[in-house]
């Protein structure tokens, strides 16, 4: 398990814990990170081969993760709530199977709590709005004051710290009242001395491209491409020459300028809350001393997945600049894990080709499995879960 989890690639918000099964002592945050890693974000690909075929435990963990992915959505629809209920019913079924197979006793309060979640969400909204802070203000203040002491004669020090905070709060309140009065006076003055600004022109900056190339290299002619980058593993393969030769002939060009890049910034709309998010997809033979070739989702029907091998912008004879990438397509693998779980997706590398970057949707979290296969980690975050499983 430790070996498998140490090979999980990085992802924004995903904290990797080395030697996860040998942690002797740490704070509660580290144990919570380990729990989320094991139960939700990376567990199934890492542990599936450690259990016997058709293990009920693998299915139990899978449907539990699906249930909590729906439960944790910032915005949740009625259809997603119904799917959450289906996952909860499946979880109850697999818990019974785990109890029979491993003797696990599920009779404890937190096991029963998810049964009330559907009612809570429909009457109170999504769980992102829930908090335990209300009613615990005194405990939080006392705890923060305690950590500021030297742990000797604590009661006297906590009393002094609390008195100082009260004094600072009164001072801050007076300053805020004074600032508000100044704002009201300024607003009154501006209304009486308003100037005519109707002739001012505003220039809006617009960019239709939702991607932006980063880490540019020097201009190079395609005829010298394979000699100018001696350390790039992709450019020194026969496949690379074959792929580029095909596209050069399609463009009826023998040579033209290109600018290689080592990363691309992709802006996309999250399916969880419809906010604009950004991914950074790397394509670098030496990123902090290690090769980094990220995976992306391609806008096909259904969606496809591919490794980025080479990112570049080419300057055509007309002067137009086109952003493109050489990708290694990932197709469904013939190999399957011992216990294929719900929504399990395993890929293997196939053909290579050149695509326009306008067809790239966002980056995705994929890491290696046995026999040169790749697992899609669709539970690394809520947006990936909704996009990869058509749950939006």
Quick description:
This protein is of the alpha+beta class and 392 residues long. 38% of the residues lie in helices and 22% in strands. The protein is built from twelve helices and twelve strands.
Helix and strand topology:
Elements: H1 2-6, H2 28-41, H3 43-47, H4 56-71, H5 78-102, H6 109-112, H7 117-124, H8 137-146, H9 154-192, E1 211-216, E2 220-221, H10 225-228, H11 238-250, E3 257-269, E4 276-287, E5 290-293, E6 295-298, E7 304-315, E8 321-332, E9 346-356, E10 360-364, E11 366-368, E12 373-376, H12 382-388
Helix pairs in contact: 4-5, 8-9
Q: Would you write up a description of this structure?
A:
Helix content is 38%, strand content 22%. With 392 residues, it is α+β, with helices and mostly antiparallel strands. Strands 1, 2, 3, 4, 5, 6, 7, 8, 9, 10, 11 and 12 form a twelve-stranded antiparallel beta sheet that branches. The chain is globular.
Shape: globular
Q: C-alpha Rg, in Å?
A: 28 Å
Helix/strand-derived category reads alpha+beta
Strand content: 15-25%
Order of helical and strand elements = HHHHHHHHHEEHHEEEEEEEEEEH
Helix content: 25-40%
**Count of individual helical segments:** 12
Distance between the termini: 32 Å
**Mean pLDDT across residues:** 78
Q: Main β-sheet, in a few words? A: 12 strands, antiparallel
* Weakly predicted, low-confidence segments: 195-207
What's the number of extended β-strand segments? 12
